[in-house]
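so i finally got all the pieces together for this one. its two components total, 904 residues if u count the protein bits. some of the lines might not be protein, just check the labels. i wanna see the whole assembly predicted at once instead of chain by chain like last time, that was a mess tbh
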Amino acid sequence: MAFKLHIDALSPHKSTLHLEGRLDALTFGEFDREADKVLQQMESGSTLVLDLSLLEYISSAGLRSIAKARKLMRARDGQTLLLNPQVQVRKVFDIVKAVPIKEIFQSMHELDTYLDQIQRKMLGEDME
Amino acid sequence: MVLRSLASRLAVWVLSGATVVFVASGFLLFRMVGHRLLEQTHRESEALASQGSSLIQERMDKVTNTARVLAAIIGPRPGDAESLIRDAMAENADLAGLAAAFVPNTPAVKSAGQSPFVSRQYDGSLERRDLLKDPLPYWEAPWFKKGVACDRGCWQAPFLSQSRHRQLVSYSSVMQVDGKVIGVVNADVTLDWLQSVLLSMDVPAGTHVFVVDWEGMYLANDTPGLVGKKADSPLLGTLRANVTSDGWSSLHLQDQQGDVWVYSQPIRGTDWNLALVVPNELIYAQVQRAFLSVLVTGAFTLLLLALLTMMIIRRLLTPLGMLAEGAELVARGALDFALPKVHRSDEIGRLTRAFDKMRQELAAHLVELTRIAREQQRLSSELEIAQQIQTDLLPGPHYLDARCQNFELFAALKPARIVGGDLYSYFMLPGQRFCVIIGDVADKGIPAALFMARTITLAKAMSTRAQSPQHLLQLLNRELCKNNENCMFVTLLCGFLDAVSGNMAMASAGHDPPVRWGQNVPPQWLPLASGPALGLDEDALYPIHRVRMRPGDTLLMYTDGVTEATDAALIPYGGERIIARIGQYHEGGDGDPVKFLVDDIEHYSAEHGQSDDIALVALRWNHVGLEEGASMLELVFPAALHEVFDTLGRCEETLRVASVPHDLRTDVRLVLEELMVNMVQHGRSQEREDTIGLRLTVVEEAILVELNHDGEPFDPLQSGSPSLTGDIADKEEIGGLGIHLVRAMASELIYTYDEYGNHLQLRFACSYLPEHDHGL
């Protein structure tokens, strides 16, 4: 099975990329191209969510693509959150310590809660 | 026992020698003295005889002179005859009687008127008688006739006087007047008188002296009974012979004991002889006595000398006896005794001291020997243990691949001494590889055995680190070069057999090339490029040689103890013979080729004996196939990305078919992807189209992957670990993640590089594969 990318809720504030299949040396180019389009329109302080629940496999080439995206988001003071990585992907992430644990979420609910908290925090800061 | 001692023997010899000298010199002396003595006796006896003869002659002369003077006086005056005779008788006491007998009928008888005869009586008185008045006419008597006939006067034969009862002898002298015989004057002397004259001689005892007349009648004899008797005819003959000789001669007499010497001297004026008889015995008696006493004294002296000699020698030789006893003790092995102190400086003293020193040194030497023997025993028992340990270092002589009997191994090792420097070993390596080693340490014996033990242990320890035989040799060489002061070295042949495929990689460190033969292929040498022996050059490199074992192939490896085994004529066994014998064996069947060769070598070198260690290893590839449940994939493809991913797909399929769990499949895929993409992206060869070879095998409990890439050398193990900050986005350049993943996921990763390129051997443990029955 090859790689598929499904873009959901594309907005400058928050976008979600649904990865499916294998992200490896053969497919990372496709991801890079598609992700680039999304990343270009993201504004400062936005959030990029990578839904990994359907990603079966990732190799170092795929890791590099994710790293590139995270770098770009960081440059825009944004954040990249990972959602529901499968066993193999989680294992690879663990081995190379790819992302901080707090940025990986097991479910959409967990992610929404986290985002709400941040929103409230930011609002609180604004009120102060 | 006594005679066996040196002292008594010496005494006996001294005694016998002295006796011989003593007797011989005594005998010589006796002969010389005896001769002198005889000469002296001859002289003395002759002198005595002539002295006796003179004595008697002197006395006889008086008688004859008286008779002659009377005859001269009475002739002219016959009338005074009686008074003249009487006067003469009174004057000469020697005379026994005097007579003037006239021839009858002559004027003289007429004028005288008588023929007077005066004789001496026993009492000494003189008696006169007229012979004319005798009843028998005297002029007819023989004495008168003989007297008248001898005109110069002569002695008559002795006669017995009837009237006087005496034996007499008379001298007759003729009276003449004017040339005419008128009568005879007759003077008598008794034989008793003659006897007394004879006995007045001083004659030595035992010597006989006598006077004998021409007729052989004894006139006087120191044995009175013989007077008037006839002498023996032999004596008489001797006396007569003496007249013509020196006057003495030897005679053997019947009645005497032994020979006698007879000395005789004629008495002048008579026809008598005076004889002296000296027995031989008498002459020698004195000297014999002297010699006898000397002999007895000598014998006693000799006996004394012998005893003295014996005592002195015994005394002298007492230490020698002790030495002899000591030597007997030494001969029996008892050395713990003390010899008495000897303070002499002669040969015996020196001998005793030397002997005692010898005993002490012998004892010390024996102690030393015992110690050495114990040491030797300890050493040999240690050596036996060492042999056992060395034997234990070696795996068994037969090995059959337990998994699927793909190969079989036969081995033999025979040290020339108790321990040796040859070695062989084999063991399984991770990834279904089988390592086999054969080697030969230079030199023999204990140093070689120790070096062998070092080599075999190091080889086994390092084999897990080594990715290939040449790598193992390299590691071993570097290790053996360390602290190798004695420059010991070992030739080694090492092979890694892929137990699944039959591919074999070999490397040689100065070792003899192996021999290979197959089912229909005759035995031949497998030429191997070789590096230097291990332990000499630290930087040595070892070329690799790949052999693909075909089913039925056998590879024989051996040490030079095989080719250098010699027969009685010192002709070496040689490599050609190995080839020939293997050819024979090959035709014969498929038994143990090693045992076949060892028996043949033993038979060949039976007479000369084994001079070098012998090691033989034969590896036979049966190629039964993969074990049940195992699967395998082998591909070679150009190094391109899409080819890589095609291959990854096929690998995954293979693993899926082999019921490998999904997550392990993914791990394998990730590792293979990382490695192969690396090869494609970084390792492309500049000169040629490079290819990647992959072999994937699923065996019990493991997945084995071999990746070969003929591109640029690239060792993924050498790249350092990436710095992991916890966020991959922290890094400027993202690299090394793939290799990090590979290292984390593969259970084992071995990299080698040779002239064929990069070789990677991977192993994934999968304990959760469906378990086979282990018989547990």
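Chain B has a mean pLDDT of 84.
Chain B is about 40% helix and 25% strand.
anyway lmk what u think
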